[in-house]
């Protein structure tokens, strides 16, 4: 029996060799091919560590044909970067390097996925076109660039082609010029070219129109032109079409409505002149339709929309409905659409009035998003028994919240009615029957919260958002029953209590904790390492005491500013490898800054703020990395020179070392290495030497504060080259993209995605860079408006020479302070060109000559100090000078005369029009002064409102900006 087994084994071995198939499962030649391919790659994460041994078919990402042993699939896609945005462990590091021609040895390869890696902007290898058996090719977000090679057209067996990028991370940078080769992909079913530049490929549509089997086409953000006509529509099997974010300005092309098999159509983020044409009714198979963010709904919504009996998702967000009265849409939503529609999103659209009654007819509705509008009146009064998500936040609803929410919406999982004007008293009765609730937000309303400590909340709650909600003064004890809670946000909730001991132990799932800006006291626990899921902690603006806790390894955001925390900064913070923001400012920390900030340990750290403490010693040499954007060490007791290692902070935008004891010179390498610098603050230190002229080469630098040092020499003329002070900078806040992405999360949403959204919105609305700037003679903290500040402060140094005329060309300068130096010569005659100047301080110098008359053009000037110089002549008595009646701003210039000083200009040799300027003229000037204030106010007020009334676009933009400012200011109160 043993002999027969041996013979059989030898026979199998012989046959295997004869057939060229290794007994280990893969062909030896293909194993060597894979190893040669691996040699060209940089695998920092060890993702190919399993590529050892003889059987390549069991290597990670490799799959062989069970019959032939040929390698048929190579899946090296780094999908974790998509599914685990926060993951930066070994498995998330991308492959880099070169793609070897050795791949051509895999002649039976059918599946190739290199997505979410980074190949340094190289062109897609042309030899990919020789992999004749390929059916699946995914090169999305793999760091490719340049022209897409025509050779891909040789892949006639290809079913799936993905060359796309995504909006939230740098990926491919591809463009297409020739598109004729698409016609050769006769087997293609799926095509994704999102973010591929098609602006120079005018024939893309004709080429794609020849594909007989294509069922999905994604062309978002492609800068394409959309032809209005198509001779013959061949896309008979097309089910999904995404043309979003292409800034298309035409009417919706009629040929779109001949795509009879279309199930999903996305035309969002464009500028179509006519939206929702009546021909939309022809697309009877349509299930998903998005016209979001096309600005307006000209012509309204056609009746034919109601005949889309298969439609389950409709997104009209970011569009102003011109007809105004939404009740007129009752006939549209009385069609068969009322039985099929499951998702309705119409957010950020200036919708007004009360909620229309026809909403109550949508009995299949599962998601209703109407936030960021102007709805007023009562809460929704009708029942939607299938509804799982209801978001009516950020409107102007008044009245009270219905006490029978659980009967109206028994299946609700997501409920948010924050930022309205709802009144009354909110009690636990309002949430009775909402047993499935997972997200609850009722922040920033006018009702009083009176929830009993005995309340048993919906135990499945994961997200609890109650900022600005008057929860206090006691800490809500019912929270400890929520063992599954992931996000607890009680910022500015009126809580004045000691944090209970159970808070850090009631839920092991906590990911986001925000208790900021209350009056919560107590000591921080020694360790929070048991909360392994914790990502975001914000305890700012409270009265916490004790030392800094030990935090779990996954922590990304730690904000403990404005508390009473003592002790030293623990070195354990240096080893939180995923840390992005660390803010320990405005506490009572002592000792040195740990010198353990190895850049390799912090590949993501963007913000480090240790300002306003009692730290001492030198600046650590390890404190910089290529990811650091904001570095604040001001108002401590730090000493020593600026370390050479700061050159490694290549991404730095803000460098704030003010109010310390830093000595030495301002090094020239600072201007040569920190090319992204926007704010440079070295105020109140012990710096000596010249100001480096090289600073003028920093194109983004817009705030310089070197005041109160021992700098000498002249003011460099090169500072007049600072581009950020000479040209306007576009500042905008665009939340619509993030909000639209959030809306598309299904009602069975993934909790990690919602945490991602919450963290992102917290950062946009909550944490922002900030610096203290001396403006108009007082210290002002700039945070939300810091991106708008343009300032130059060289005061209280030992600078000499004249004021460089080149500074006058910094036309966007708002504040200029050169006081307390040894400057001589005249004030530049062209100083009136600084039309946006609000504050000018040239006091305590040796300036001579007269005050330039061009200064009357400085209409924004509200703070001026020219005292203690050697100025002479008459003070200009018109323009903005009349609104500066304080005589002290001219003291110490004994040869000056005129308003507002008591010495008149009777003996000054002036033109005849100015001779005889006596006391009666002085009194007339005072009358003129007050009259000009009144007239200036009236003219300025009506000029602003006239512009806003006449220009609708400016009016909308202005009020959206004001709304945003009010929102962020209100949130901080």
Please outline what is shown here:
With 973 residues, the chain is α/β, with parallel strands linked by helices. It has a domain at 929-973.
Write up this protein.
The chain has 973 residues and is of the alpha/beta class. It has a domain at 929-973. Helix content is 13%, strand content 19%. The protein has 11 helices and 57 strands. It has a 31-stranded mixed beta sheet, with helices on one face. α10 (919-950) packs across α11. It is globular, with a radius of gyration of 34 Å. It starts with a helix and ends with a helix. Mean pLDDT is 84; it is low at 1-24, 81-91, 730-753, 759-767 and 909-973. This is Receptor-like protein EIX2. Residues 1-23 form the signal peptide.
Quaternary form: single chain
**Tally of DSSP β-strands:** 57
Helix content: 10-25%
- Alpha-carbon distance between the termini? 88 Å
Number of helices: 11
Most strands sheet: 31 strands, mixed
> Could you name the ranges where pLDDT drops below 50 across 5 or more consecutive residues?
1-24, 81-91, 730-753, 759-767, 909-973
Domain Leucine-rich repeat-containing N-terminal plant-type: 29-65
Pfam families: LRR_1, LRR_14, LRRNT_2
InterPro entries: Leu-rich_rpt, Leu-rich_rpt_typical-subtyp, LRR_dom_sf, LRR_N_plant-typ, LRR_R13L4/SHOC2-like, RLP23-like
Signal peptide: 1-23
